[in-house]
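From the shared-data thread, chain only:
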Amino acid sequence: MRLVTYRTTPAGQARLGAVVGGRVVDLARLGSVAGVPLPDDMLAFIDLGPDAVPVAAQLLKSHEGKWPVGTAIPFENARLLAPIPRPRKNIFGIGLNYVEHVAESNRTLDTAKELPTKPVIFSKPPTCVIGPGEAIEHNKEITQQLDWEVELAVIMGRRTHRIAEADALNYVFGYSVMIDVSARDCRRAGQWIYSKGQDTYGPLGPCIVTADEIPDPHVLDLSLTVNGVTKQSSNTRYMLFKVPHLIADISAAMTLEAGDIIATGTPAGVGAGRTPQEWLWPGDVVVATVEKIGDLRHPVVAA
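Structure, as tokens:
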């Protein structure tokens, strides 16, 4: 399933929907008509556990093409928000997780030239998340080095602690796209959260594709353009630490919970790694794409 959080009017309630055949189907309303109770927001749906996806999928299949009145709208009439508009916890970010990005970071960002032997983990606060089409803010008083990073985002489906790597994918709810916006000149004593956690620095969406639709997250093309020019183009097969390893490593020390987000790192091609270096400025448009999930398009505006 392709799950979204959407509104029908700018001031309307955010609701959970599924994208089916060019329409957004409101799962709670459809469930109410069919006598199948379903929540109206994404986190509550994830909280239902592994049975929620097949139940909802069967409900959608049984009504496809004959949606009850008030349960579906044309996709173009829905205003998409971030699939999880306000995560419960900080997003787990993974740094230096593609080999070529390690090399370019060493050249330009003073990171080590050796490949990490363990995942490099940082965090982004829930307040940085924005949805499709929302503006990335450029505050010239804070940064002159605003950069881009396209990433596959993993959304956890169940609480887990000290999970074995072989079992880790069974705890994934689904996948989305994230742009890890980074102010390169805001790093402080090697710490990244001020650089990567500012407001609007976590574009997320356009949807969550449930894990049953992506059995292997390591075969996905991902790319990013700025003003129509390709800056990043790679495949998730080139991750240094694959998704099961990341889940096992994080959960060895910190409990992962339903709805937690892991941004799995970015390939080469960031602005800091280019010659000459390139940065985002007001008026630019960034589009990030992950195969089987979709596109995130965001303008950059002066803050």
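The helical segments are 27-34, 42-47, 52-63, 99-108, 193-196, 243-251.
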